[in-house]
Specification:
- With about 260 residues, the protein is α+β, with helices and mostly antiparallel strands.
- About 45% of the residues lie in helices and about 30% in strands.
- The strands form 2 sheets. It has a 5-stranded mixed beta sheet with strand order 2-9-8-4-5, with no helix packed on it. A 4-stranded antiparallel beta sheet has the order 1-3-7-6, covered by helices on one side.
- It is elongated, with a radius of gyration of 30 Å.
- The two termini are about 30 Å apart.
- The N terminus is likely disordered.
């Protein structure tokens, strides 16, 4: 069947779902200070840094989300490393995409593996984001200190290269090459047969080409009507290409046996 290969590929790509990460049993979060200090006036797209004090029995991640009347405001924020368990300080910052005021900040505490938020804490924070340039002033020492700590944590938490990476790359490249060859041969073989055969054999070669070409036309029309209708179109083409190749091989064998 044309979609046997697609089913095998999808089944082979399935991975076991990892267990949910453990929740910290001890978690305390404090908002120590901000830069600029509240009440702050911040140029839009300039960051407002938050110094966080925490206690946790597990490593955790932090990000700061601005609020207005209890509703999150459209903003960007920094990526967080996994800050170590124990008692310490962490850095988070955010910026607003559009001018506006905020009246609180939400400190989201995430699992160390980056899978979801385990808890959040809301703190009052008054700030106005608008036009203008940042005021000239010295940056607090805690920002540089915590940024250096965050960079060191990110470097230490980078996954090590897996052994056998070259072999895995070669295997992946080989599979992609074979599948690409299948896509080409699905059209090349029946076209070559049409050119070199005659009579009923040529009609059979045209039929093999139609097995591959008509689904391509169907996919093009379907995507024009609904872009989501053929999300697995490469697998569809590979399946029909294999059928086309098999049809040409069958015709060739029968032709060879009959010596026509």
């Amino acid at each position: 069947m044309p979609f046997v290969l697609a089913a095998l590929v999808i089944a082979g790509c399935r991975a076991d779902v990892p267990p949910p990460p453990p929740e910290p049993t001890l978690l305390e979060v404090r908002l120590l200070e901000t830069d600029p200090p509240a009440p702050a006036r911040v140029p839009t797209s300039s960051r407002l840094s938050v110094r966080i004090g925490y206690r946790s029995d597990l490593p955790v991640r932090f990000h700061a989300e601005p609020l207005r009347d209890g509703v999150p405001v459209r903003a960007g924020w920094n990526g967080s490393p996994a800050w170590p368990a124990g008692e310490g300080e962490a850095l988070a910052w955010f910026f607003l995409f559009e001018p506006g005021a905020i009246d609180a900040v939400r400190i989201d505490v995430g699992h160390a593996n980056g899978r979801g938020t385990c808890r959040w804490f809301d703190f009052p924070l008054t700030a106005e984001f608008g036009s203008g340039d940042p005021a000239a002033r010295a940056e607090p020492a805690w920002i540089g200190r915590l940024e250096s700590t965050a960079e060191a944590l990110r470097a230490a938490q980078m996954p090590a290269p897996e052994a056998g990476g070259a072999a895995d790359w070669a295997l992946g490249f080989g599979i992609v090459t074979v599948l690409f060859a299948v896509l080409i041969l699905g059209a090349a073989l029946p076209i070559a047969a049409i050119v070199n055969w005659d009579g009923g054999w040529r009609i059979g070669a045209w039929a093999a080409l139609a097995i591959y070409a008509l689904p391509i036309l169907n996919i093009v029309i379907g995507v024009v009507i609904d872009p989501t209708s053929h999300n697995l179109w490469p697998l569809e083409l590979i399946g029909f290409a294999l059928v086309s190749i098999a049809a040409c091989a069958g015709l060739y064998l029968v032709k060879k046996v009959r010596r026509v």
